[in-house]
């Protein structure tokens, strides 16, 4: 399993997401059935490099935030139209 460090995202919205992307960060969300959604921030360069590997999509991932582990899978990734950039990542809860 891959372990990814994340930071909780307090603010949301288009303007805040644009500011994050200028800092080489990606907004993301963790959601699932009967659980509270958690907005998080990922490091763009790290995620961009590991998303090229098959295990990123096939295996479960562990997101580590404030010493709490969240077991998730990648649901969707939003890409920029013509630049090699990621815009947003959706994760879904596992168990």
Task: Spell out the blueprint of helices and strands.
Elements: E1 2-5, E2 7-8, H1 14-22, E3 25-31, E4 38-43, H2 44-50, H3 55-58, E5 61-65, E6 68-79, E7 86-93
What would you note in describing this structure?
The chain is of the alpha/beta class and 95 residues long. The protein has a single domain, classed as Ribosomal Protein L25, Chain P (Beta Barrel), CATH 2.40.240.10. 21% of the residues lie in helices and 46% in strands. Strands 1-5-6-7-3-4-2 form a 7-stranded mixed β-sheet. It is globular, with a radius of gyration of 13 Å. 14% of the residues are buried.
CATH homologous superfamily caption = Ribosomal Protein L25, Chain P
Question: Which CATH architecture?
Answer: Beta Barrel
Mean pLDDT: 92
Intertermini distance: 15 Å
Q: How many DSSP helices?
A: 3
Please identify the top-level CATH class.
Answer: Mainly Beta
Strand content: over 45%
CATH topology: Ribosomal Protein L25, Chain P
> How many independent structural domains?
1
Helix-strand sequence: EEHEEHHEEE
What's the number of extended β-strand segments?
Answer: 7
Instruction: Detail the poorly predicted runs.
Output: none
CA-based gyration radius: 13 Å
Largest sheet report: 7 strands, mixed
Strand order of the largest sheet: 1-5-6-7-3-4-2
SSE-based structural type:
alpha/beta
